Automatic annotation (TrEMBL):
Record-given protein name: Uncharacterized protein
InterPro entries per the UniProt record, alphabetical: DUF2854
Domain of life according to the entry: Eukaryota
Amino acid sequence: YSTPQADSIFESKATEIIRKVKQDVTRHRYGDEAHLDTTVKKLGLVVPGKAYPQLKELRQDVTEDGELAFSIVWQSLDTPYKMWADQKRVNKYSTFFGPGVYADCVKIDADQRLVAIRLTTGERKVAVEEPAAAEVEA
């Protein structure tokens, strides 16, 4: 899934690792149905004795601030979403697929058990929090 705008942003913003992931996933390897199996294993997303998550698609979008959002979508029948979304693991995604990107875990479809690792180029925008109002003593 992509749009012409996302394709254009991909050409200018995609990191070397994102380009390699896309190239690896989109080329056909005879007799090889599994894409990125070693990746999900290295990221600790395979439950021992259970089936590996299956890569379903790649998605390219453009963020509001013009960055590339590159999502790797898996069907994860045996690995629970909470494992994918664990904050330590999400931090590991950024390191694993970095530099030049930050990662988020996105629940795509709960019924179909679809989950994505979304890699966004650039720096993560930090939300500015309002300072807590000081309590006024009476």
